[in-house]
Structures are given as structure tokens and as C-alpha cells.
Amino acid sequence: MLASVVVASSLAGNDLASALYANPYEGAPFPGYPADDEAVRIARHAEAIPHMTGHLADAAHQLDLCATGCHYVATGITRDLAAAREQAEPVQRTTGPALTDAQYDEPGQQAPTEPRSAAAPTATAAAAPKPPAVQRARR
């Protein structure tokens, strides 16, 4: 549906450009060229006005299609969001199994008796005991 909105808006832009192209030039005459007389000007307008009117009518139709398509897209998004909200289940975090002694980085470190929760932070790094290698380096 969104693609049809893009296509319709592109066609509307093309129709507006075609309407401008069909418009007869009536600016200041170039130096050295004689200005058109009134009869030529009226004939040029009589020929251009139906072309311009047709292009402008087509552009208005394409813009109407754009508005309808935008309405459908917005309605679909709203409907999908409402349906997703109704189907959504509350998300609960679960923790994995407790680590074994072999899974710890430092040899000789013991696994905690209770697994740590992802939501509850542990003690800060300053309060945590340092590995033996770090303690020896500070002496």
C-alpha cells in the first residue's frame, strides 16, 4: 500500500511538471526578437489551457489517491499495533543454571551458593576480593 502512495505522488509531481511545461512562455521578449502580437498570444493560450487543465486534473486525482493510501496505511499501522499490544505477554527474565567450579576463570575459586540474578547487582569491584596475582603485584 505504501508503494502505491509513492507511485501516486510521483505521478502527481509528473503531472504538475507537465502542466508547467504546457504553459506558454509570456515573459519579457528576448532582445532582438519581435514580441508576439495579440492574435498569436490568444491562439497559444487557447491551445495550452486544455492541456494544462488536463494535467492539473490528473495531478489532483493522483493526490487524492495519495491521501486515500495514506489513510489506509495509517489505519493498518494502528490496527497492527493494537493487535500486537493485545497479544504481547509480559516479559519475565529468567536466570540460567548456576555456574560450576570448572566454569570460573580463576582456579580454586568456589561457585556461589545461590545463583546471581541479572537484575540484582553484586558488590562493587572495590569491595570484591582481588585474585592472588593482583594481590602479589601490589605488595
One letter per element, helices H and strands E, the order comes to: HHH
Can you count the beta strands?
0
Strand content: under 5%
Nearest-angstrom radius of gyration? 38 Å
Mean pLDDT: 79
Biggest β-sheet: count, sense, barrel?
none
Number of helices: 3
Catalogue the unreliable spans. Answer: none
What is the oligomeric state here?
A: single chain
The geometry reads as elongated
Measured as a percent range, the helix fraction is 55-70%
- Class inferred from helices and paired strands: mainly alpha
Distance between the termini: 71 Å
Biased composition (Low complexity): 111-128
Region (Disordered): 84-139
What does this structure look like?
The protein has 139 residues and is mainly α. The chain has a domain at 2-25 and 37-87. Helix content is 56%, strand content 0%. It has three helices and no strands. Helix 1 (2-22) packs antiparallel against helix 2 (38-87). The chain is elongated, with a radius of gyration of 38 Å. The mean pLDDT is 79.
Break the fold down into its secondary structure elements and pairings:
Elements: H1 2-22, H2 38-87, H3 132-138
Helix pairs in contact: 1-2
